[in-house]
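Board notes, transcribed. Complex of a protein with flavin-adenine dinucleotide.
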Amino acid sequence: MAGLENPGLWLGGLMALKQDTPAPRVAIVGAGWAGCSAAVAAIELGWQVDLFEAAPAAGGRAKSLTKATTHPHNDPPLDNGQHILLGAYSACLATLKTISVNADAVFMRSALDLRDKNAAGFALPNWASTATSEVGMASAVTWAVVRCRRWPIRARVQLLTRMLRWRLSGFACHSSATVADICRGLHSSVMRDFIEPLCVSALNIAPNSASGSVWLRVLKDALLSEPGSSDMLLAKCDLSTLFVEPCLTWLKQQGGRVHTGARVTQVMRKSGKWHVTLAASEACTQPAHADVQATPYNHVIIATPAAQASAICWIHNPHWAQAAASLEHTAIATVYAHSKEVMPPWRSPMLALTGGLAQFVFNRSDLMAPTQTCQVAAVVSDSAANSRDDITASVMQQLDKTWPYARWEWLQTVVEKRACFACTPHAARPVMRIAANLWACADYIAGPYPSTLEGAVRSGREVMQAIGQAS
Ligand SMILES: Cc1cc2nc3c(=O)[nH]c(=O)nc-3n(C[C@H](O)[C@H](O)[C@H](O)COP(=O)(O)OP(=O)(O)OC[C@H]3O[C@@H](n4cnc5c(N)ncnc54)[C@H](O)[C@@H]3O)c2cc1C
């Protein structure tokens, strides 16, 4: 009984089973990681589930591109963007376990390493992965800072002192503070090698705009809490194989109904029950959807991006819809390339890049299908200021400079303009409850995490927990 891992879900499930009446039914609109996770949690509670996805394939911002856009050389399928998870992503790992995905098999796990090809920069020692206590984790971080010889001694002492101060304050700061504010006075080399890469990769926004309190929360969870929490988890398969496909298979096996190519245009309440309306063309072309439109739901969860959620929910709660519509977004670009020449093995499948727009590059062949030539994904976080052509040119130049002998062939540049909500100190994130029995879950819903897979999955699990308690 998977729900036993979570007492809240299990108790709710037990209550649902106790009823003589048919299990309550929930409609979930949007099958990204948040909507899929809410669907899994609903099934665990014993609910009947209809999951609607507007696109032909589920997965939202974290899925593989269609086969038509994949490339030769027996390369792994390209993803919408290279993703990295952390050991601290407890909700993601719990959901993967529920749907029978073995995290040990699908992830390459290693200690946090933000260094470049020449091993310059910040990295935790390998034994951080096997530290058995919080004290062990703190020792690993201290060890890494002390051993980072390219920082002046004064800079290392300053960083350790500042971390201790953050620890003593419970990793809290004034809600209006930016990351730059709370890091003021730290040495420029520490900012370059540690604060900026961590901030941009976790919050996708530069330190002078990023929320200090959200960043401190990520820092605490990732670096200074449970053993293993700082580990980087790099998928050894494409994103759809990692989560979406096993998730949909599991949902269908458990009796959930999954409707892809089904765009919900409105949700309406009649006689105390909710009904969904699908876009006309989809309702006509797919007869099964007609049946769905007549189905009454006890609850509806909107798991779409903020703009679509705002449009669907405006008539039910204009104040909530306004908050969702007001969120700003930041972009991420991913440049895929393939080496024509044989490459020597990399020190790590993820390396920091310097001297151009990309911050990190991932060796996807090493991760997924080891070959002598390799497919790489270079990631440009917070990329909105640059055009697609400028991004491509800059990244290809970085790759050429770093591995001049590789003879890089450009494959594709994927620009996701609304990759993450802008996690600034003033971002007013909407709450999960929209109206009576109408809810929202997604990475932008109020919560401790920035726009991440963990934020999305947590939100999906939490909304079902709240519904279970309210029902
Ligand atoms: C390039 C890139 C790189 C990233 N890297 C990382 C990373 O390394 N680590 C990390 O943790 N996070 C990363 N993220 C963030 C992460 O991908 C997102 O936070 C997460 O995928 C959001 O999931 P979601 O379910 O909230 O929303 P979405 O994934 O946007 O899902 C919403 C779904 O709703 C559907 N939908 C919209 N309107 C309707 C409608 N009317 N009817 C039905 N369905 C509808 C959409 O088609 C979509 O499938 C990255 C994001 C991008 C874009």
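Residues 29-35, 52-55, 60-62, 81, 83-84, 263-264, 303-305, 308, 332, 334, 416, 419-420, 442-443, 451-456 surround flavin-adenine dinucleotide (CB under 6 Å). The domain at 330-420 is CATH 3.90.660.10 (Polyamine Oxidase; Chain A, domain 2).
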